[in-house]
Write a structure and sequence with these properties.
Blueprint lengths: L1 E5 L8 H20 L2 H8 L3 H6 L3 H9 L7 H22 L1 H22 L7 E2 L2 H14 L4 E5 L11 E5 H18 L6 H20 L27 H53 L17 H4 L11 H4 L10 E2 L1
Parallel strand pairs: 2-5
Antiparallel strand pairs: 1-3, 3-4
Amino acid sequence: MLIVGDDNETRRFPIVNITVIAICTLITIWTYVSLNAETVIKMHGCVPARFFSHQNMSEYLTLISSMFLHAGFIHLVGNMWYLYIFGDNIEDHFGHFNYAAFYVTCGIVSGLAQMGSEPGSLLPSVGASGAIAGVLGAYLVLYPHARVKTWWGDDSLFFAFRSYMVPSWIVIGGWFALQYICMNAKIPGIGWHAHIFGFLTGIVIVGVYRICGEKCSDNDSASHMGNFAHYPSSSSTSSSNQTHGAAVSIAKPVTVILLSGALVFGGTFYLMERASGKTAAISKATATTAEHPASKASTTTIQTPPLSSAKSKKRPAHGVVPTRRAMHGIAPTRQKTSHR
C-alpha cells in the first residue's frame, strides 16, 4: 500500500513543515555529495554509548541534529513524504510556533527512547521518523475520520492508477500495529522504539491541549481562528471573552514549552539512571570474577608440548587481537546505522 495524499484541506500555508522538509533534503544532499557521510553521521547522530558516557552540550545537541540526518536518499524520501502529507494539517491546527515546538519535542523524546532501548550500542541513530511518528499520533487524534488516498497496486497490470479512500484511523492504526509487531520481533536496523514513543508523545501533547480547553473537532482546520485557539471573530464578542481568549493563547505555548521540558528532562534522567545501573552491574560482575577466579583442576594435569617459535607468533586462539581503532573506541569504516 502506498499513501498518496488526503482530503483534509488546510487554511494556512505550512511554512514550518516545508522548511523542515527543505532543511532535511539540503543536509542529506550536502552530506552524501560533498562530505564523508559516515563521518558526519557518526559525529552528529545519536550514539547511545557515547551519549551516556560523555555528558556535555555537544552530545545533547545530537538529539536535534540527528533529526535532520538520514541514512540515504530512500530513507529521506520515505520520511519527507509522510511529513508532507500529514504535517501540514497538524501545523494548521496548532499554529506555526506550537507546531515547531511539538515537532522538536516528539523528535527528542523518540531519540531518548531509542537510545534507552540499547544504551551500550555504538551504532549512530539518525532520521526524522520519530518526530514524524508524533505527527501521525496527533493526526490520529485530531482527524480520525479524515480520508487518506491510498494506492494498492491492484491495477498496475493494466497501466492504470486507481486509488482508494481509507479512513485515517485505519491507515495510521495499522501503521502503529506494524511498528509494535516489528519492535517485539526485534527486527534490526530500524528505530522501532523511536517510532512507538514518538507516536505516543504526539498523542499526549494533543491530550494536554484538550485539557487546556482547546475545542478540537474532526476536520476542523477551516474553523481555526488565530494560531492557538478557536474564537468567533464577530464584533459582538464581549471584552471578557477577548481577554479570556488572549490568556488562553498565551497559556498554550507556555504549556507546550513546559511539557517539552518535562518530557525531555524526565526522559533523560530516567535513561541516565538506567545506563548507570547497567554500568554498575557490569563493574560488580567484573569485580566478583576477579576476586573468585575459576579453580584449577586438582587431579590430573595434561602436559602439552611447547609451541614452536613459528607457532607462538600466531594470533591467540581465544579471539582476534583488537585493532588500534577498536582499542580507542572508534567504529570501523563501514558502519551500520540505525534508521528512524
